[in-house]
Amino acid sequence: MKKMTRNVGCLLPFVVLIFHACTINGNTGGPVASTEKEMTYFSFLAEDNGGFLLQNLTGEIEGQNITVYVPVGGIYQSSLVAHFVSTGVAAYIDGVEQTSRTTAADFTNPVTYTIRAEDGTEQEYVVTIVCEGITITPEDQAEYLLQALVVPYSGITITDVSLYASTGQCGIVAGGKGLSNGVILTNGLAVNALPPNDSTCESSMLNEPGNSLCSLLTAPYGSNDSCWFEITFDLASGYNGICLEYVFGSEEYPESIDSINDACGIFLNGTTLEHNVALDPEGNHININGPFFHGDAVMLPPENGLEYDGSTPRWVAQGFIAAGSYGNKLIIVVCDASDCIGDSGIILSRLRGIPL
Prior knowledge:
Elements: H1 8-22, E1 39-44, E2 57-58, E3 60-62, E4 65-70, E5 80-81, E6 83-86, E7 90-93, E8 96-97, E9 104-105, E10 111-116, E11 122-131, E12 134-138, H2 142-149, E13 156-164, E14 170-175, E15 182-186, H3 212-218, E16 223-235, E17 239-250, E18 263-268, H4 291-294, E19 310-311, E20 315-320, E21 328-337, E22 344-355
Parallel strand pairs: 4-11
Antiparallel strand pairs: 1-2, 1-6, 3-4, 5-9, 7-8, 7-10, 10-11, 12-14, 13-16, 14-15, 15-22, 16-21, 17-19, 17-20, 17-22, 18-21
């Protein structure tokens, strides 16, 4: 029987060659760790932020800078939940891991996100919230103001409209990103609401009369330089109310708290305080002497995007009425109290029906 033998020495170079090929650059055959760490999407969603936002706000990403534009009036920034998407494996703020649509952060100042790649490398992105720039075009024709205020095909049919104002008291508001589009009614000049905030008491003394509805809100002071906008409308059968967004700001803040009481109101189908649907979140009427302007939630420039020294954020006024009803009346008023000094204004947008 012939003995079979193997030449191990001849196979050794091939084994070494194969091992060498599998260990080039330290790769032993496993997957290569990714270096991807790009932030591809960033926003604040209304549904994630407990009523602080009235609309979704999407950031604009340019390089490593992310800018989120907000409507005039501003938003509360101290505790916002962000929705973000990245190609990395984790995101951090000051070393604390962030979970999209879950973790809240303080965006009062620019916030730096650190995106970590699978291979451990990192990339920073800076998120800044900015109130969009606005323009105000004076407008004295009620029909043009109405066109800028009402959302088309939203259940409301306008049957009559009237405006009681001096020249320049009202205007059409246009936001640079379209977030603030609407109208403004003031007790002075509409253009005086434009930023920057470079005056402690921007004033236009019109010496015009007051309004009985406004005087309900300015009591015990009388009202002056009033402006009011009356809208008569029918409501479609598939709707049971109306709503609109508004911001009230004033140059009377904070100097004239407890002495002057500029105010605004939105009255639906009635002329008593019970018919005023412009209320703060606690149900109080809006005036300079009211609880809101005595608190610490007042929006200040430049965050509110206005000349006004103090303002509300953007709120929703709403009222419920019978579906399919006719001849409903909405009266929006703003006025000075006691004197004709210190402009105030109400910015309004998106008047629409509330679907059943």
